[in-house]
């Protein structure tokens, strides 16, 4: 009887015991550092203060930088969605034996260092680079074009490295959707394009939102690519945090900028969560 009771007690707490290592690692490596940054940004020798946040609020330069960062995230997300959705769908539906190899090819940008990738884009984007010479040879421009040190260059470079994440996320989603559902819709009179939109894309909307959130979060927090490809002309929140912490040694303000960026990411995540929740509540009514 005692053995059975002890066994049932262990079984009752088994989920907690299994979750404990993950919760401990999350608390040590995420919550504690973020709490330390928050404390650093709101304290000084005299005690509690909001001076660092007031410095951000009343300086239009940092508002412009935050807007530039958000624009970068939305632009990169839109490009990866535009290119990733059809690519992931075709790879998931392909019956070719080369489909797995083509999917593996999409991961190659993730295997290269961010610094090496950025230097490669620098070679392409300079005024006498391959991109400028190609545009001149095609007659699309009349003078050399420099994409280096511009937001356009940063957006292109980040979209190239984050596109594989979008494709891999959506590939698994499309792969899990039974193609017979599309055939059933077409057998009821729907055109293939209509069946694709009303059935497949509707079922994949949760994965599309999740992939968009992943790409957006990584884009607005990227440092190496904006720093090397964008330079001072495309300054974003991540490069400003580095500048304040490493070059100016203003750790409290750097902590405040990091906290603000975290709050923005959380706000976007909550908005995406509300979108998913609203979709889930509407689904049974259809």
Order of helices and strands: HEEHHHHHHHHHHHH
| Broad shape | globular
Mean pLDDT: 82
Number of helices: 13
What is Rg?
24 Å
Alpha-beta classification: mainly alpha
What spatial order of strands do you see in the largest sheet? 1-2
Keywords:
single chain, 286 residues, mainly alpha, two-stranded antiparallel sheet, 13 helices
What is the fold's blueprint, element by element?
Blueprint (H helix, E strand, L loop, with lengths): L1 H40 L1 E2 L2 E2 L2 H7 L2 H34 L5 H7 L8 H12 L4 H8 L13 H26 L3 H8 L4 H12 L1 H16 L3 H7 L6 H11 L3 H32 L4
Antiparallel strand pairs: 1-2
In words, what does this structure look like?
With 286 residues, the chain is an all-alpha fold. It has a domain at 51-112 and 152-279: MetI-like (MetI-like fold), CATH 1.10.3720.10. It is 77% helix and 1% strand. The protein has 13 helices and 2 strands; from the N terminus they run H-E-E-H-H-H-H-H-H-H-H-H-H-H-H. The chain has helices at residues 2-41, 51-57, 60-93, 99-105, 114-125, 130-137, 151-176, 180-187, 192-203, 205-220, 224-230, 237-247, 251-282; strands spanning 43-44, 47-48. The protein has a two-stranded antiparallel sheet. Strand 1 and strand 2 form a beta hairpin. Helix 8 (180-187) packs across helix 9. The longest helix has 40 residues, at 2-41. The mean pLDDT is 82.
Summarize the structure.
The chain has 286 residues and is an all-alpha fold. The protein contains 13 helices and two strands; from the N terminus they run αββαααααααααααα.
